[in-house]
Specification:
Layout: H1 2-6, H2 22-28, H3 31-47, H4 54-78, H5 80-83, H6 101-122, H7 125-146, H8 153-162, H9 164-173, H10 178-201, H11 203-209, H12 214-217, H13 220-238, H14 240-243, H15 249-272, H16 275-302
Helix pairs in contact: 3-4, 3-9, 3-16, 4-6, 4-7, 4-9, 6-7, 7-8, 7-9, 8-10, 9-10, 10-13, 10-16, 13-15, 15-16
């Protein structure tokens, strides 16, 4: 930990070789993470009862993307010291010396404020408040408070990334209901096994940077069993929308099949004890969440909600 703390400001001491490129600003927004956030938020918007003018719906989804990107950029700004110590993140714009830390803050802060303000003006302030809470939770609670202090950082911090379906729903309805809360719980429980699978593979990076991820603090075996436990919870939780009567059999079949595959992948992580199994589970976990939300949209379309 002291090594990581001692590296604070490492990026500030790196001479910025040139002006950051457009690609650097795009990278700052964490586009791969943003794409899942946008998709789950869009699904919440589509599933919500009532209607929203197409132009306002586009604005709402754009604001969710903008807010997620701003949160990601502020995360990169704050974590520039530990990013410089990890091979997976060392080439990010700030630790690589392609962007000054101040530039990242000056870029991200107006995006965060604008995303919340525009969403509130275009839809309603409940959705805007949820978006603001999500951004602040990710930056202040997860990034600043939890990330360097507890192996439960991913468990608690996952709440920020689980909110977009609720935000999308609220943009249409002005409120919250059981279905978006069920989707929140699904993404919330998906986050730990998703990230712990990656942490198993990248445990050396996290140890070098002093980040107390579960494999570093509790060990590899404990992490594998945690992954299996959370994977087992995902299957019944993913079926809650069906139990509520809000979603039909198309999604139900997909959730059951994908959940079984997720558990099988987690079992391989436990039984084989290999990084290859953890890497495969990490890759599948992204596909799992994407396909689940695709199934939600297909089911809604079949039921005439689209």
């Amino acid at each position: 930990m002291n090594q990581a703390v001692g590296q604070i400001g490492v990026a500030t001491s790196v001479e910025i070789a040139s002006e950051p490129s457009v690609g650097d600003f795009v990278a700052l927004l964490k586009p791969r993470v943003m794409s899942l956030v946008v998709f789950t938020g869009f699904t919440g918007l589509v599933l919500a009862p009532g209607s929203l003018h197409p132009a306002l719906a586009i604005i709402a989804v754009f604001c969710i993307a903008l807010g997620a990107g701003a949160a990601g950029a502020l995360n990169m700004w704050y974590e520039r010291d530990i990013d410089a110590l990890m091979s997976r993140t060392a080439n990010r714009p700030i630790p690589a010396g392609r962007m000054a830390p101040g530039t990242a803050v000056a870029f991200a802060t107006p995006l965060a404020v604008s995303s919340v303000t525009i969403l509130g003006l275009a839809t309603n302030w409940v959705a805007a408040g949820l978006l603001a809470f999500s951004i602040l939770f990710y930056v202040l609670v997860y990034t600043v408070w939890l990330k360097r202090r507890t192996p439960q950082n991913i468990v608690i911090g996952g709440a920020a990334g689980a909110l977009p379906p609720v935000i999308g729903w609220a943009a249409v309805t002005g409120g919250v209901d059981l279905l978006p809360l069920a989707l929140f719980l699904l993404v919330f429980l998906w986050t730990p096994p998703h990230f712990w699978a990656l942490a198993l593979v990248r445990r050396g990076d996290y140890a070098r940077a002093g980040v107390p991820m579960l494999p570093v603090v509790a060990g590899l075996e404990a992490t594998r069993w945690h992954i299996l436990a959370y994977s087992g919870l995902l299957l019944p939780v993913s079926l809650i929308p069906v139990a509520l009567g809000a979603i039909g059999w198309i999604y139900g079949v997909a959730a059951a099949a994908l959940g079984a595959l997720f558990i099988a992948g987690a079992l391989r992580v436990v039984t084989t004890r290999t990084d290859a199994a953890a890497q495969r589970l990490f890759g599948f976990s992204i596909l799992y969440l994407a396909l689940l939300f695709v199934a939600l949209l297909i089911d809604a379309g079949a039921a005439g909600h689209l």
